[in-house]
Structure formats: C-alpha cells, structure tokens
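Action item from last meeting closed. Structure (409 res):
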C-alpha cells in the first residue's frame, strides 16, 4: 500500500517487490512511474470487469494556472489512456466559467462540458425529506412523519419560494424552531469570532483523533504559505517548480550591518529563504532532502533554510540512521533551522490548512443582511491570520518568523 501511494520503501521491501528505488528517481521519472501504475491498474480493473470512479473535488483550492493545468493533464490521461476509469470533476457555481474553462486544454474542456450535469437546489419535497431525516435522529422521535413540532403546510409555503441548498434548508428550519420555542434569535457572530470557533473546533477534532489525520506534506505546505504571506513577515511565497525537496521559496530584505554588526547601513540586501517539509519514512529520502538544504546553504552562504518535519514520522538516532543524522548535524552547522512538529503544533498547522480549504469552498458562513447566511470571504480569513494566528506566537510559527526576520544578525 505504501508503494501504491508513492512512498519510498526501504531497501529490503524494494528488493522483495522488485521495484525501483524511488529515492534515486528524478521528478520526471516518478511521474512516468505514476502513469505506468495507473495504466496497469486499468488493465487489472478491465480484466475483472470492475470500473473505478475517480473524483476531483474541492477545486476552489487550485489557485495557480500550474495547478489547473495539472488537473487537466490528469483528467486527459484518465480519459484517453487509462482503462476502466471514469473521472468526475466537481465545480462550484460560476467557477467553471470564470476560472477553469478557458485555462484547461480545449480537449478536456469539451469532454467535461459534453458530459455536464448541473446540481440544482432542493425541491420542497426534498427539503422536507432533509428535515425528516434530521428529526428521526432525535431519540424517541424515530417516526417523524408529521414533522413535529413544525407545520408541514407552513414549511411547504416557505420552500416553494425558491430552490434552497441543503445548508440553507437546515438554517431556515433552525430559525423557525427558535420561533416555535420562543427563543431569542442567536446574537450575531462576527467573521473573526466564527473563524476562531471553526479553527478551535478543527484543532480539537485533530487532537481527539490524530490517526485520522496522517502526516501530510501538502497540508503543511499550505499552512506555511498562509503564515508566510499573511503573518507578520508579509512575504510572497512561491512553490519550487524545479526542486522536488524544496516546498516554498521566498526572498527577504535584510538591513545591511557594519562588520561588527552594531549599526545598520542604508539599503537592503535580498536574502533567499527556502523551506523543506519532510514526511518521508525512508532514511535515504530524508537524507536527500537534507542534502538539498545543505547544498543550498553552501551555494548561498547568506541564505536561510528551514527543515520542517511532522514528529510522528520517526527520525531515529544513531546508529540506526547514522548517515542521515550526520547530514542533519551538517545542515544545522551550515546555519539551517530544524523544526519537529509535535502533536499539538502539527494539529495547529493542519487545522489552519483545512480551515483555508473550508473558506475557499464557502463552507463557513455568518449571518448577512436580513439574517441571510453568507460565506466568509478569503479577505476575512487573512484578517483572522493577521489578528489571531499571528498573535498566538506558538513556538513553531516563531521559528518561521525568525527565519524571515527583517533585521540583520
């Protein structure tokens, strides 16, 4: 299973499975291997007459043209090359026209549009079915045919006004229930407060069931990019498109200092900074990541590098990983910073990344005009990072700030 997910295996398992050592493969070779695996899987599915539906969702989080083009290449491969596989791509509202349609390959766009299905809001009958399904979940109310305490005729009149999303149906039902119970309407919640609550809820969910949230390089990268861009440093992060081990690059401008380091000199010096995020389990892959950081620091003596690792990914001391540990010490000796995210710190990073996905997907709402729910905007989310996350001054985010400090040392 580890091999199928793209992980590097140890030497014994590589020999046992008779597969290539991925730590020695280039990025292009790894992509070719992934295509071969999917092709082979398609042959196997065809042999046993089993189709595979491949779903692409949460596409609001594809922010660059490079990401969108990668989606197009994947869909094109599944349609034209892989057998017994059906890609299903989910777009929200006008995002298809505004963001994706003209950036995807014309072949991919025409394929998707030819087989397009548009999801509509709930009909009145479907809205009542949603409410009935939630009412029967209440202990002692297993038969909710009458929709008590609601008036079904009144509800039908409400839902005949428009085709509502399931979330809107539930919101309207909750508002009506408070009126029936003579409860005061809930006080308005500000976007900042709503995001604080959502972040705390996500953090607690991860801490309660950390096994469900396995080490994830992509999510850690997302959290890092958000903090670099919207935290105190306000730097512009960029993904490294050429180096497989470098996750984020940026440039900071440090005040020039005298040789004694006591007084700033007018002007600023651009300093390159790289971040390496590692969740690999194989010592050779970990060593290759550290070697990349060492090579950068030797080539850029004034540059800065930070190695970030989810502490759940073991990093055994010598003699088990003797060579890898020597590379870790050499990385530190060259001026590299090392951060091992413990359970609490990792949960904060994952919670921040997942909260950003939910905001992009418009899954977090507050009451707008006329008490109508509206999605929290991404600008409000970045304000939350500036005013809340940045002020928490957690240890690992302080380490990131230190790597991006604007004062010379």
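Sequence:
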């Amino acid at each position: 299973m580890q091999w199928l997910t793209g992980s590097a295996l140890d030497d014994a398992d590589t020999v046992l499975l008779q597969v290539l050592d991925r730590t020695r493969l280039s990025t292009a070779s790894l992509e070719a291997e992934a295509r071969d695996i999917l092709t082979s899987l398609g042959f196997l599915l065809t042999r046993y007459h089993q189709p595979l539906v491949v779903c692409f969702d949460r596409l609001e989080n594809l922010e660059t043209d490079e990401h969108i083009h990668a989606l197009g290449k994947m869909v094109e491969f599944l349609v034209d090359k892989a057998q017994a596989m059906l890609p299903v791509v989910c777009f929200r509202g006008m995002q298809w026209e505004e963001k994706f349609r003209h950036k995807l390959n014309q072949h991919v766009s025409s394929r998707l549009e030819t087989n397009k299905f548009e999801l509509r809001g709930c009909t009145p009958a479907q809205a009542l079915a949603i409410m009935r399904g939630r009412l029967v979940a209440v202990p002692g109310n297993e038969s909710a045919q009458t929709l008590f305490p609601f008036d079904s005729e009144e509800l039908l009149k409400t839902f005949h006004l428009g085709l509502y999303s399931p979330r809107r149906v539930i919101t309207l039902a909750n508002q009506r229930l408070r009126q029936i119970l003579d409860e005061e309407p809930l006080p308005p919640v500000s976007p900042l407060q709503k995001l604080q609550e959502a972040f705390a809820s996500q953090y607690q969910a991860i801490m309660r069931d950390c096994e469900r949230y396995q080490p994830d390089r992509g999510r850690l990268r997302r959290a890092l990019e958000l903090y670099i861009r919207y935290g105190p440093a306000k730097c512009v992060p960029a993904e490294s498109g050429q180096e497989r081990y470098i996750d984020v690059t940026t440039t900071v401008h440090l005040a020039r200092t005298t040789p004694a380091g006591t007084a700033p000199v007018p002007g600023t010096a651009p300093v390159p900074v790289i971040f390496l995020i590692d969740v690999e389990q194989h010592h050779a892959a970990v060593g290759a990541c550290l070697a990349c950081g060492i090579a950068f620091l030797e080539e850029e003596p004034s540059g800065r590098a930070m190695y970030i690792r989810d502490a759940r990914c073991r990093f055994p001391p010598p003699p088990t990983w003797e060579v890898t540990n020597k590379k870790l010490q050499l990385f530190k000796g060259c001026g590299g910073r090392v951060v091992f995210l413990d359970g609490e710190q990792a949960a904060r990073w994952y919670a921040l990344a997942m909260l950003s996905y939910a905001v992009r997907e418009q899954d977090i709402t507050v009451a707008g005009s006329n008490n109508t729910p509206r999605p929290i905007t991404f600008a409000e989310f970045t304000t939350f990072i500036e005013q809340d996350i940045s002020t928490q001054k957690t240890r690992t985010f302080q380490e990131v700030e230190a790597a991006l400090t604007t004062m010379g040392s």
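Note appended to the action item: The first helix runs from residue 11 to 17.
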